[in-house]
Design goal:
Blueprint: H1 7-17, E1 23-27, E2 36-42, H2 46-54, E3 64-69, E4 76-85, E5 96-102, H3 105-116, E6 121-123, H4 128-135, H5 141-152, H6 156-166, H7 169-193, H8 200-224, H9 227-233, E7 235-240, H10 247-255, E8 273-279, E9 282-288, H11 298-313, E10 316-322, E11 338-343, E12 357-358, H12 367-382, H13 393-411, H14 418-436, H15 441-449
Parallel strand pairs: 1-6, 7-9, 7-10, 10-11, 11-12
Antiparallel strand pairs: 1-2, 2-5, 3-4, 4-5, 8-9
Helix pairs in contact: 5-6, 5-15, 7-8, 7-14, 8-13, 13-14
Length: 456
Amino acid sequence: MAVSDTSSDRNVSRARLFQTRDTIAAVSTAPGRAAIAVIRMSGPEAGAALDAIAGPRPEPRRASVRAIRDPRDARLIDRGLALWLPGPGSATGEDMAEIHVHGGRAVVAAALDALFACPGVRAAEPGEFTRRAVLAGRMDIAEAEGLADLLAAETEAQRRQAVLQAEGALSAVVERWRERLVGAMALIEAGIDFSDEDGVPAEARAQARDELEALSADISDALADTRAERLRDGFRVAIVGPPNAGKSSLLNALARRDVAIVTDIPGTTRDVLEVHLDLGGFPVIVADTAGLRETEDAIELEGVRRAAARAETADLALWIEDATRPGGTPPALSAAILWRVANKIDVAAEGAPEADHRVSARTGAGLDALVAALGRAAGEALGAGEDVGVTRARHREAFAAVSASLAEALDGWDDLADELLAELLRRASDDLGRIAGRIGVEDVLERVFSSFCIGK
């Protein structure tokens, strides 16, 4: 029994999906007033639409100044740049075109309206340009996910990780693992093909087992490392403590803007308020919570419950206490890390109380040290974004399925027939193939591209 490669099947699947279709158009720059707006087109009518709105067609891949006109009445819309990007060497693999116009809302709206008047041109759906690039084989699913993360990156570490995946680092690791798996499959099937040869099946099985045990360990290590997923989501910090300890004031000081209402009335904060911060290049989500105390107020009681729940799910909890009223003891919280922070040190006696950090949200004293410590804690928990890792639940599901198939094969190694072992390994190979879109690309398209912006 020969070991088949799925690359030809993948190309057939892509060819079936990547058929002549509508030409799509969308603004690929951010909405709102700007100096320049870029409008992209992709599809079989891109060239004709460019001729109609900004003719004559420029030389391929050379930006040319053109009058942008409405093809229905030749009315001048703007003067800008036109680019002609014929396929298959374009981003989507199709014929593409761009017009660069001034970024006023009215200009962009008029240019789009003119384009949609051209035969066969319609508005793009979210992520449709990248979807077409994947179906054309210009990038794989994992690389497209990296591109989506790059568009959403808010910190330097997130950017580094997204670029790594968009450039194919995860896909390369998965492909190496798949090649090792296919090699083990070949050894098992060699035992089937040469079952009449003395010693061949046993020797082939032994070599395959060594390879599969090493591969299983590598995949288990990848599953155990959650840093890449956490880097996408952010390091979660919960600010908790008794009422009037200055929790909301500290949140405002960390955010450097008024996020939370601050008063001297206990119980002012009733719900969880979040701010997203970039601390040392790492994404940190800081949540202000209601003061923890006994209360009969139903609304405040719900706030207290939510505060405790947020602390329990946080990567780090900051227990804020009033330095002018020392002696409080933090309740038992199941946060991964708990730091005691003494606030209001500007009006407290020197040295009281004992704490991991001493700050004044009002004057800013001690805040730089606290912010630096938070950045270090986030970096230790999330990693620097420089290593390939599991970044999505979809990847984790696929790796878990591979790990389960390998475990079943290794656990039953001495009892399973070669044909059953080969089937388990084929199933594991298929699950690995799903990560980059080698297998089941149609099943994940909607799931991946629904988060993209319209012009990408």
